[in-house]
Write a structure and sequence with these properties.
The chain has 269 residues and is an alpha/beta fold. The chain has one domain: Alpha/Beta hydrolase fold, catalytic domain (Rossmann fold, 3-Layer(aba) Sandwich). Helix content is 30%, strand content 17%. The protein contains 9 helices and 7 strands, in the order βαβαβααββαβααααβ. The chain has helices at residues 22-30, 54-74, 93-103, 105-108, 167-170, 204-207, 212-230, 235-238, 243-246; strands spanning 2-9, 34-36, 80-91, 113-119, 146-152, 182-187, 261-263. It has a 7-stranded mixed beta sheet with strand order 2-1-3-4-5-6-7, sandwiched between helices. The longest helix has 21 residues, at 54-74. The radius of gyration is 17 Å and the shape is globular.
Length: 269
């Protein structure tokens, strides 16, 4: 049996294990995917300190991806990876690494990125607020890749001087990808019920238990994006300014949770 593969690249401060994305990884595996989780960092400053010497972190993540894929291919498990059905997910600094890796996929002989989801990508701002750790050109990302980049309304781009960072730094470089294949989404806080939902850089599942923010804003939409890329299904949930894509659930009294904002261009307001 061959299974689709998801490469999940963590953010800063993941020195051991897979705590940051445990719940998401379990969700993906239950759906039948093989997850490769390259732990590219082993201390706060190694192999790179934020965007300083970022290539060392790119190389570390690359080695982890290659090693993880090789391990699944050597395994005696009856499930093997289908390298024609590979998607990529990157959070925070891992979103910057993911962007650069999928941009260089051909040179690095990585599996072609079918779907890419970037959650609050950011290089830490040590060399400037516009994420200079990104490759200057992103033309290496295939034009038929389906790509979504999410920012929280209380996240990176809400910080002083960082309006043009994160997804807003990435999307001006994606003009070769048709608008219908790429979206920026923005989530918003909602305190209609308790506990209130926030839209900060750190999602609840990274520090504890997942909530509606994790499921509707990230997990559900990444699931749909992979479905759209691999099977052609659920595109109305994955892409476009549709009611299905904007939907983020309801409170227990039936009140809709604040919907996503969806665009194919940067949000600069």
């Amino acid at each position: 049996m061959r299974a689709p593969v998801v490469v999940v690249t963590h953010g800063y401060f993941e020195y051991s294990g897979y705590r940051m994305h445990k719940h998401h990884i379990e969700h993906l595996v239950r759906q039948g995917s093989i997850v490769v989780y390259p732990r590219w960092q082993n201390s706060m400053v190694t192999p790179c300190f934020g965007p300083l010497h970022i290539e060392k972190c790119v190389s570390s993540a690359l080695a982890g991806i290659r090693g993880g894929i090789a391990q699944t291919q050597r395994s005696e498990d009856p499930v093997s990876p289908d390298l024609n059905r590979v998607s990529y997910f990157g959070y925070s600094f891992g979103g910057i690494l993911t962007t650069n890796l999928v941009n260089r996929w051909r040179a690095y002989r990585l599996p072609k990125p079918r779907a890419v989801f970037l959650d609050e990508p950011h290089d830490g701002g040590l060399r400037g607020n516009s994420d200079p750790g990104l490759d200057k050109s992103l033309s290496g990302i295939p034009a038929n890749t389906l790509l979504v980049c999410h920012n929280g309304g209380q996240g990176v781009t809400s910080e002083k001087g960082k309006k043009r960072s994160s997804c807003n730094a990435i999307f001006p470089r994606l003009g070769h990808i048709p608008r219908q294949n790429r979206n920026i989404t923005r989530s918003y806080p909602d305190d209609h019920g308790r506990p209130a939902l926030t839209a900060e850089h750190v999602r609840p599942s990274i520090e504890g238990r997942p909530n509606a923010y994790d499921f509707f804003v990230v997990w559900r939409n990444f699931d749909a994006l992979r479905d759209a890329a691999l099977t052609g299904k659920h595109r109305e949930i994955a892409l476009g300014n549709t009611p299905e894509h904007r939907y983020t659930g309801r409170w227990s009294d039936g009140t809709p949770v604040h919907p996503l904002r969806v665009s194919s261009e940067p949000f600069l307001d």
